[in-house]
Batch of 4 targets.
Target 1
Amino acid sequence: MQFTVTLDRDEDGMWVAECPSIPGCVSQGATKSEALENVREAIAACLEVRAEQGMPLTVETACVEVAV
């Protein structure tokens, strides 16, 4: 399965990776590659827990356009 993740830097310079289609699925790392590897593990763990609890594996996401 493929998931879209977001990457951002926090105030301490750590890379934060989040999977928007899985609520609460967030990880971090000192480098982008470390954050991506960590979020892969977090996604797998979140999917396992959601399946065990009978929850939907993901939530629906969509892109919206905002005029600025």
Target 2
Amino acid sequence: MKKKAIVNDTAVCQVRMQAISDTMSVLSGKWKFHILGTLIEGNKLGFMDLLREINGIGTKMLSKELQDLEINGLVSRTVMNTKPITVKYAITENGATLAPVIDELAKWGVAYRQSVVGTE
């Protein structure tokens, strides 16, 4: 007979797991952390600036990810009254709260790479 797995189904655990699920839903994908980290460091950046800063991302993907981040209130989009029209993207106050999370992920990544590969 198989043993039944013990699952912590307390209310606190369920709230925590829902919060993790929500976070993963908002931040999932290969590029969102790259975009957020770049905007946190670079303040307001244009689309082409972001495209140049984030190695390997294509225009369609950058556009899609910026839309997702804007919908979720992490990035703001400002259309400048110029000819040709210029669009600037910036981290929102809500998005800036991710700075310590991104910093910790970067620290973990450096430590992990050192432990596995032996280099930074």
Target 3
Amino acid sequence: MTVSAKIPRELKELMDRFGIKPGPIIREALEREVRRRLLEEAERRARRLGEELRNIPDEEIARLIREDRELR
């Protein structure tokens, strides 16, 4: 996939001056942002799961663990 973006002329001139290739930098920035959002999503899900698990009595959790161990 190809992505394009408009940048100020001065920035393009500076990129050329320093030999900066935008492709690898843009790719890295997008990968970093996707990782950040995946982590945020995982944290939200973990918090929701923790809230749900808080409502399960300890005895029920212990029973489920024992059942799982017996099945293995």
Target 4
Amino acid sequence: MHNFNLNFIPRRKGVYIVGGSVRDALRGHPPKDHDIAVIGDARSVAEEVAANTGSRVVEIGKGKKCIYRVPAGDGACDVSAAKAQTLEEDLRLRDFTVNAMAFDVYHQTLIDPLNGRADLDAGRVRMVCPEAFESDPLRLLRAFRISALLKFAISPETLEEIRKMAPAIATVAGERIREEWIKLLGAPDSFTCLLQMADTGILEALFPELMPLKNCPANAHHAFNAFDHVLAVYRHMEAMLHPDAPPLCDRCGNSELLNGPDGAAMIKHAALLHDIGKPAVCTTDHQGQPHFYGHETTGGAIADAISCRLCFSSAEKHYTSFIIRHHLRPLLLYIAMSEGRRKNRARARFFIRTRPYSTDLLLLFAADMMGKNPDRDISGALAFVRDTIATCRDTFQPRADAAPLVTGHDLVSRFGLKPSPLIAETLDKLEVQRVAGNIESRKEALAFAENFIKGKNLS
């Protein structure tokens, strides 16, 4: 019934497995990690667990909030003193009923004072009590994370309480929000939760920068306002990354095309924010059509501020900013190729300017095109995406990985160049030609460099 490995947990009175460990075990997923609450001496229980597993005890925190962590295999066992004098009182201090169950290790029985088992069987996320959100407003976001990961529905009364308490999420430390947000985005089916977050006000409290998009008008290419558009782009991005989605590449699933941190989570985050700079740069021409020149640069700066607020890692911040600042490049390449302008060199230039995130940007472009107008035929754009992904992976990447044919030192010694921007510019032009397949030997590379340098000197 319990799916627990009890060999290393001391069978004492007052020792209970609690929280998500119990929830997952009851769902038929034996937990790797165990949370143990102790009525009594938690430290001695942790030491016995460590002795039984040949591990050690690591203290996290101090005083009543101290957790004794015991690494065990590919998981861990967190032992702590119960937060109340009795276990039932402890469970009533928790967030949701599905997390407010315990397994009595001594008697090997389930303790469920709040009917969490019934909610688990019904696929329902229900708050323990309204005060649960007051004691820790992070739980407002956690409700959606649990809903997305478990594919559970949030109960109506819980959603209503979230709506009342939504502004409180802004008082939570950024690093705690980031952890829940990334886990939520990592769920393969999170879009419904995102809509509920928008409806209850949580999305606005987390990202107030998104709200001006609601008043940002659609131009001739869009059927929706900017806010509804980014939600549609998020939905299409998530659908493309789903394990069951048709692949855009013959040799791998779409999620395997991503090169950023945190897998699908960060590209979905970038998709949600990709047009966030539009309201700040919106102008209207003499025909009444809105334009958003430079919104990618402004959006990148806004995204940087959000990344700092949520304590994103340097890699996460860089990735988000890069994707937003460059998200128009695939569109510009698509237009250029549709007009028949130097297709291979244009694609090589795109690859060089955007690596290692070329395929990430192409996925966002596909989702962006899908999210503009449901009545628009985008078969040509999707064919472009498939072809460009294949070219980047199968042709450009192997060429780029090869050693350069000419170095900066070669330019200095061969042509007498002094250190200057001309060296970098020449090497850049050479790389585009090499990756495009127009230059294949050192002799050809030097000849191209000589002609290019002469042209620059004449101008």
